[in-house]
Amino acid sequence: MATETVENYIKALYALCRESPSGEAGVARLAQELGVTKGTATSMIKRLSLARLVKAEPYSGIALTAKGNKIALDVMRRHRVIETFLVRILKLDWADVHEEAERLEHALSPRILDRLDHFLGRPSTDPHGDPIPDAAGNVSEARSKPLAKCRARERVCIVRIKDQNRAFLKFAADSGFMPGVNLVVQSVSPQAASLIVRAARRKPVTLSQIAAAKILVKVI
Amino acid sequence: MATETVENYIKALYALCRESPSGEAGVARLAQELGVTKGTATSMIKRLSLARLVKAEPYSGIALTAKGNKIALDVMRRHRVIETFLVRILKLDWADVHEEAERLEHALSPRILDRLDHFLGRPSTDPHGDPIPDAAGNVSEARSKPLAKCRARERVCIVRIKDQNRAFLKFAADSGFMPGVNLVVQSVSPQAASLIVRAARRKPVTLSQIAAAKILVKVI
DNA sequence: CAAAAAAGTTTGACTACTCAAACTTTAATT
DNA sequence: AATTAAAGTTTGAGTAGTCAAACTTTTTTG
Ligand SMILES: [Mn+2]
Ligand SMILES: [Mn+2]
Ligand SMILES: [Mn+2]
Ligand SMILES: [Mn+2]
Asked: Is the pLDDT score of A80 beyond 90?
């Protein structure tokens, strides 16, 4: 079994590889993500490489192996099932569950994970709309586009919030932006790099393109 | 926050102090309980002593300080609330939950613990009848006596099984011995150091005094 | 392209935890 | 009381994870 630290590194690497166009992660960002020094991250990469969880050459990019990928998906599955449980059953705040799940994800046995997943009715997404990989590691991401790419007068439905930051999630919830909520794009201002959207029975909200890029929607 | 290892040592020390007539624990038993060598246990005791969690003189007994006691009760609370959740909600096997809780108990934040406890209706005992300390650390142990001390023809109710061992719990459950179950002591044989008891709608079972000592009952 | 900045690596040191094996002290037996 | 067994301690070594700081390589930019 991978240690808690290793699981955190692997999960961070997975996310970094996803969001990088080259599909490879770098030591600096990895270290930043995990709150450690670059030297620490380098030595961990060396160990992960030795354990065949990542492929990495000195001074070049880092990529997960199939083995590493499997671990990443498994940790993400645990993380998201826990978040779902915390919100749906224990009624914890939507904005807080990420940090709580960050610790719990390492303590869940396969048996408990499956029971929990079954108890929740095999959910396909977590409370933020993030897809939950199934037990075999298959992820089915719903088709969607960033709210930032929408045109004026478009009517859309929020499917996912791509930011785990508590402050942003708090803001999103306060503004009524949660998965399943319908929005109307009132206007788009390319010059100001912002757009105005409105949820049902809500005041219009102005969002920067940066914020709007974190909100994934589907057209309705 | 105390580390996972420290929490396990403290919890083991609590149990050992309880069951020792002197109220003090020894290094040899502690090491055995945790599956480490005596040397490892000795060095940990030195560290716990430095952190004021135990009081210990070289070559003499070990006792928890008030601070150590508080940690022990807190870990036990987490452990038992989790066990209750696993049995009542996730329907895990009564005999398996102890080992599962052993890992989870270290990953539960105060917030989640309280939510879980609330969700379960503030249970006062876990599935094995072990009392659950409240948030302030108060434990209310129900009056009881070991089944081994019962006389022939006594009618009693099981309140607690004092053994976490999976094989024993499996045997107990198979024989119908669980908290809340009523028993009739059919006969007692001091020579054979055994007794025969019967639960409702069950065949009589012969128990050695050693096994019967692990089953706490109250007279009805 | 040369200088500066950023990214990545190495080294030496530290904490937490562990073991094996030698050793010392205390307790139990003969 | 002397011997032996059990309990407890010490030492030396090893793994996992971390930092600070010096260093090297790559990338960016004037
Ligand atoms: Mn984590
Ligand atoms: Mn999430
Ligand atoms: Mn434990
Ligand atoms: Mn229990």
From this structure: yes
